[in-house]
Design a protein that fits this description.
Length: 67
């Protein structure tokens, strides 16, 4: 075994394992607990429909309030 091979074995850098950064750990743990963090197209569509419904309802309330 050469010196370079023994150095890799000692510090563990040649085992293919790379620890996660803190932001990667948070994303991984949050995704495991709460599901995907990025909304699907269905979710986006639902959120947009709810926004539009709420906007319409608010406009109706404002009209009634000012009448």
């Amino acid at each position: 075994m050469s010196d370079s091979e023994s150095d890799c074995d000692i510090d563990g850098s040649d085992d293919g394992y790379e620890p996660l950064r803190m932001d990667q750990q948070l994303e991984t743990s949050a995704a495991g607990m709460y599901g995907p963090l990025v909304p699907s197209e269905t979710d986006r569509s639902l959120m947009e429909r709810v926004r539009q419904d709420l906007k319409q309802e608010l406009q109706e309330v404002m009209v009634d309030f000012h009448s």
